[in-house]
Specification:
2 copies of one chain form a homodimer.
Chain A: H1 3-14, H2 33-55, E1 64-69, E2 74-82, E3 87-99, E4 117-129, E5 136-147, E6 153-164, H3 170-184, H4 191-202, E7 204-205, E8 210-211, E9 215-222, H5 226-252, H6 259-278, H7 281-288, H8 293-296, E10 303-305, H9 317-320
Antiparallel strand pairs in A: 1-2, 2-3, 3-4, 4-5, 5-6, 6-9, 7-8
Helix pairs in contact in A: 2-5, 3-4, 3-5
């Protein structure tokens, strides 16, 4: 563990900020506008860093950026790289949006926030690699705050990263979860197991009785040890993503493969679509609330297929995937 | 108009059954079990007829049938033909399911039916033709009944058919809506405009501001002129489907086309997936209520693609489609 992780652990330990006993968010140490600026600066730089890493695998192609504005306030920059040698499609968006009155549909579980002024910032990505031996991946880091009518600031962080292999390699998954564990460690021993479990539960296709992939981290309402410590956790997750994913890209992107593997990848990508359109709260809320459709749906696979009644041959590499689509410790 | 249509019109005119003044369903003339049998016999024969019509276009391939049972009661027969010369995928399912207690999620708009014994029968199909000049189509005819606690039978019919072209031909769409109008005519002048409008409203992708296609008919809670007349309407819709669709298949299935048209078809099939997984009540309810996933998702296109920010070239045949994706009179 590096000096940076140690410093974060110290911060987590020494934080003297009390935690709300009854709710998972709190109003102690309300963030100032300089906090919003700090989060934005981090997210923008994170998006740039991740794009540079993806482009380092691509001999020719570069991300195309669409900067957009939202009439109600804020905007974003959506970046997509399509048709790469390694990444068939890589989409990564930054957005900072705000409004004067949170719609009730966005505050179902927090009715006291309906009608409050709010801001939300985040970076979200989905990468669909070309080689079927390379897993699809998703990462998201986000921040939300609302001003209550009595002048309090309610805020929390959310996000995580998860991996969706087609042909799983145990060593890759152990590495992936190893980084996830390392990211969480400075913030308390309970963090990794809790957010790993949440990830398994969130990315679950009930109608298939399958997880979306082999998981990772998922968290929401994260307010632990005050703003600085919570933001430090968000940065740990954001920074951890590349450490978790890049070694897998390096190792697997040139694995020889043929039509059989491609067809299986296209088929399994159907599950990604099923999850994102049927269950994913961010996708559904975005579409229902008039978000920018193209930015929301850049998570969709570039090509895919559905096949009625498909069952891989018993004992095949394709049948083996099913063993990985139930929660498991790594 | 043939003798059959005239007879139906007479039936609609002479029906002396009163209509419920306050609700769209009624309990007059409760259907007996012989009615359920009559509906089942019609639906089974309809599925057979439609399969035979599809197979008549296929030199070699035949439907594969999966008969299934539902632990809670009932079952169905799901038929799929995949990889045909004309039909890249044709899926058509018959089901007859029942239960002792309607779940609250299935009776949101009819809270008085929660917990009642119920039966549902239907035939549902989605055809994805191979040639991009041939439209995708969907048809559904269904019947629902529930026994209230005070011994009444609440029942209604639902269904419709709609067309989703990629390269629209006005004469085909006029023919399609012409059959829809003819189907409705014997049942009253208001039926076609009402169910045509309902179709435009139902098959609408709010996040795209597009209809799914050029529409047709959609209806639910259909109880007009008693059971016999309502069932006659259902049969008119079911029988009308082949008259509406087959001439288009005959005319367009061999239209010369190339990669450009295929790519556009694959792209537009993404919209079908978006509609079915985000909006379609039957699909969502089926998946959430533990329905047979493979039967529900046989509506999914066999192959498709998504492309971030795709906009067809101005003035192109592909751009022209957009003019057809807003409600219009035919």
């Amino acid at each position: 563990m590096g000096a940076w992780s140690a410093a974060l652990r110290d911060l987590a330990r020494t934080s003297s900020l009390p935690r709300c006993p009854l709710r998972s968010y709190c109003t102690f140490m309300p963030p100032s506008s300089s906090n919003l600026q700090a989060i934005e600066a981090y997210l923008i730089a994170l998006q740039d860093r991740i794009c540079a890493s993806v482009e380092s695998f691509e001999p020719v192609l570069r991300f195309r950026e669409d900067a957009w504005q939202r009439p109600e306030g804020g905007g974003g920059r959506t970046r997509v790289l399509s048709g790469g040698k390694v990444f068939e499609q890589a989409g990564i968006g930054f957005s900072r949006v705000s409004g004067n009155a949170l719609p009730p549909s966005a505050s179902q579980h927090r009715p006291e926030l309906a009608g409050c002024a709010w801001s939300a910032l985040g970076v979200s990505l989905v990468f669909h690699p070309l080689n079927p031996y390379l897993p699809t991946t998703h990462m998201n880091v986000r921040y939300f705050e609302a001003q209550t009518k009595d002048g309090q600031t309610i805020w929390w962080f959310g996000g995580g990263f998860d991996l969706t292999p087609f042909y799983p390699f145990d060593e890759d998954i152990r590495h992936w979860h190893g980084v996830a564990r390392e990211v969480c460690e400075p913030f308390g021993a309970e963090v990794y197991p809790r957010y790993k479990k949440w990830c398994d539960e969130y990315f679950y296709l009930k109608h298939r009785k399958e997880t979306r992939g082999v998981g990772g981290l998922f968290f929401d309402d994260h307010v632990v040890g005050g703003f600085d410590n919570s933001f430090a956790f968000l940065r740990a997750v954001g920074d951890g993503f590349l450490r978790a994913y890049l070694p897998i890209v390096e190792k697997r992107h040139a694995t020889p493969c043929g039509e059989r593997e491609r067809e299986f990848q296209l088929y399994r990508r159907g599950r990604y679509v099923e999850f994102n359109l049927v269950y994913d709260r961010g996708t559904l809320f975005g579409l229902q609330s008039g978000g920018r459709t193209e930015s929301i749906l850049m998570s969709m696979p570039p090509r895919l297929r559905f096949e009625y009644g498909f069952t891989p041959e018993e004992g095949s590499a394709e049948a083996r995937l099913m063993d990985y689509l139930q929660p498991r410790e790594w």
